[in-house]
Write a structure and sequence with these properties.
Elements: E1 5-9, H1 19-35, E2 39-43, H2 49-58, E3 61-64, H3 87-103, E4 107-110, H4 112-120, E5 145-151, H5 156-161, E6 166-171, E7 177-178, E8 186-194, E9 197-205, E10 212-215, H6 230-241
Parallel strand pairs: 1-2, 1-3, 3-4, 4-10
Antiparallel strand pairs: 5-6, 5-8, 7-9, 8-9, 9-10
Helix pairs in contact: 3-4
Length: 248
């Protein structure tokens, strides 16, 4: 069976304080795709313009992964709680997302990826919130922060996962999307309570013909992630497999 080529946008480890940890994080995304039958194509900010254009033009899917905070200026705000940003990663993710949107190929976002997709689609972010971060990676699984994720009935994500309405997911973030900041073309597919309101921790495209999903949790960290999320990986790879290999 064909292994679809899925471009994976990653953090450049050379720009981090702990390159070895960044390499480990990056590898987890690639390993998850391989386990589910895909051929990941890793790209970070070091890729030259011609290389980027070539891989974006022939990709059968796009995975936007975790990383530094999206620059608040990208959604028209001054910094007020945002941490370290990564301009090179912001530019790479936007270029990749625009190319994927133009071609209509499947897109999956994870953590920062969810936030970036929302920003690129015209939404905003909650720049800082408490009690959603976990100890620095790689911590023991038992030390990871977890919280409930309630799937929204009637969404495509709920149908795709076809399991419990409530999942217990890992939490490795300090920024978020709330209902007021959700981009117009996106729909909340999963919610988690926070300070008397709900945060959007899974989203999907409102367009029925657009395969675009994102989750705030980290399903590639399967030691702290519910097994139901394996169906998301499988559906992503299946959707990518339906894209012609020639990039059409």
């Amino acid at each position: 069976m064909e292994r679809p080529r899925i471009v994976v946008t990653l953090t450049n480890p050379e720009r981090t304080r702990e390159p070895a940890v960044a390499e480990l994080k990056n590898a987890r995304y690639l390993d998850a795709l391989r386990r589910h039958g895909a051929e990941p194509v890793a790209v970070d900010e070091r890729a030259e313009p011609g290389e980027r254009a070539a891989v974006f033009a022939t990709a059968q899917g796009l995975l936007i992964t975790g990383g530094a905070d999206v620059d608040p200026t990208a959604y028209g705000e001054a910094p007020r709680g945002a941490g370290a940003t990564d301009p090179g990663r912001d530019a790479l993710d936007r270029e990749a997302f625009d190319a994927a949107t133009g071609r209509g190929i499947p897109v999956l976002g994870i953590c920062r990826g969810l936030q970036a997709i929302n920003v690129f689609s015209g939404g905003t972010l909650v720049q800082h919130l408490e009690h959603h971060e976990s100890p620095p990676y790689p911590a023991q699984a038992a030390d990871a922060t977890r919280h409930p994720l309630r799937l929204v009935p009637g969404t495509r994500l709920a149908a795709l996962l076809d399991g419990p309405v409530m999942l217990q997911v890992n939490s490795f973030h300090h920024q978020a999307v709330d209902g007021s900041g959700l981009a117009p073309g996106l729909r909340a597919a999963g919610l988690t309570p926070h300070d008397g309101a709900d945060l959007v921790e899974a989203l999907e495209s409102k367009a029925a013909d657009r395969w675009l999903f994102a989750v705030q949790c980290h399903p590639e960290r399967d030691e702290t992630s519910p097994p139901e999320l394996d169906a998301l990986w499988a559906a992503f790879v299946t959707a990518a497999r339906s894209v012609p290999v020639n990039g059409g």
